[in-house]
Amino acid sequence: MSKGLTWRISLIFIFLFLSVIYLTPTLFTKLPSWWQGLLPKDKIHLGLDLQGGIHLVMEVETEKAVEGSLDIIATDLEDTMNGKNIRFKGVARAGSDRVAVTLYDKGSAESLQKLVKDKYPRMQMLPQTEEGGFITMQMRMPESEMQSIKDKSVQQALETIRNRIDQFGVSEPVIQREGINHIVVQLPGVKDPKRAIELIGKTARLEFKLVDENLTPAAAASGPLPEDDEILNEKKVDQTTGGVTEIPFVLKKKVLITGDLLTNAQVRIDSQFNQPYVAIEFNSLGAKLFDQITAANVGKRFAIVLDNNIYSAPVIRERISGGSAQISGSFNEREAADLAIVLRAGALPAPVKIIQNVTVGPSLGQDSIHKGLIAGLVGVILVVLFMAFYYRLSGLVANAGMVLNVIFLMGALAALGATLTLPGIAAIVLLIGMSVDSNVLIFERIREELRLGKTPKAALDSGYDKAFLTIMDSHVTTLITAAVLFQFGTGPVKGFAVSLSLGIIINLFTALIGTKVVFDFFLGSGRAKKISI
After folding, report:
1. Fewer CB within 10 Å: N-end or C-end of the chain?
2. Shortest CA distance to 489 belongs to which of 159, 190, 174?
């Protein structure tokens, strides 16, 4: 046996051995203890269309992110003007792109103009107006700045949703941006779609506000509400009956601390009442603010608000140092765990709206697998019979190459931990056809050479050489198409592109090296005198 033939056979057996090793975790659910060491443990994951789950398309309300940025600017201006003793009547967001400040005199207006120029140089100052003895100044956010905030809000929402799903424990999720403000989420194998949707879509804006002790909810409901107050409800659930009671509170609108200053959130169990609560920890800035706020408001009620719902409103008994607090409410362990997840992952920068929600049941997934396997099996059988009938023993060699093709491809998918989708199965069936097509090109060239009177060995070498460029051209162009599909396609299309790309590379190896080894082995050693083709 020649040296060149030896290394080619060795290479084929090495690839075959590696494919079987990587496919073992996929084929066998329970592996022996000795396998858990250095041997591979990744397997081929099934996509949403094969094992069921949920497919969501969400729209990020980016305008809310811009409004939130303007609200922060308004609050910051209010605090800064108070600190610099600039007299003003009120500060508020005006419309969707500007902040308005009402002042008492021109001196205050000049001070504010200088302040805005120094602190917010990108804000555009509009001409001031006078009415009723007051001066109104408006600052407009440039369009480019608003577009930047909108784009960042979608990116941040994408990362926040990814963090939440990672902590929720879903394997192989698909989370990607689509268009300007849409996010696509696919969660294969999720058994509780309602809980997953609530967890993903919750804005999780955590705020700490003071309760207005001077105004009762009844008085606030019957009369005009002060501009700096709002009414929010605390929901209490009776764990026995499931009944929900809403208790109104009058809160100061001003946010004293936000969830952005949190570093951790964990579920704990109250030893006295055996009820779950969420223990939270602030970073250094949050701890400092929390210490100052609790010291200045001993005896007052401090509301913990999440997405405009009050979780609890305890009385501040004493100054709280150390940066730790707890959120208690009438929720069970699962609700407490979900709350901790969204607090750890961070708040969404803007609300998200689910515009498409498709739940794929496991039965549909099994049906898809069954139909996909049947289609693949029928395709393989038909191809095998055709090749054996039309090309005789050479057809059997091509069939062996096709089987190697599939084994190598499945091994590569397992090694990469790839996700197999129904379009991926379609790509595998397509590659079976491509594998045979390559061999047909080679065999027809060999037949032509044999008709010219060449010896079997010379006809074999000439047939492979002449078919080489044609096969290479067709595979490279298909590979470019697969690369484009992967770059610009969505989840199922990407699955098709991955299977197709790997299959094309593997098919080049099996068509040009794998099958030729068999012919060289028999013709080169003198075991065969002619080619059955």
Report:
1. N
2. 174
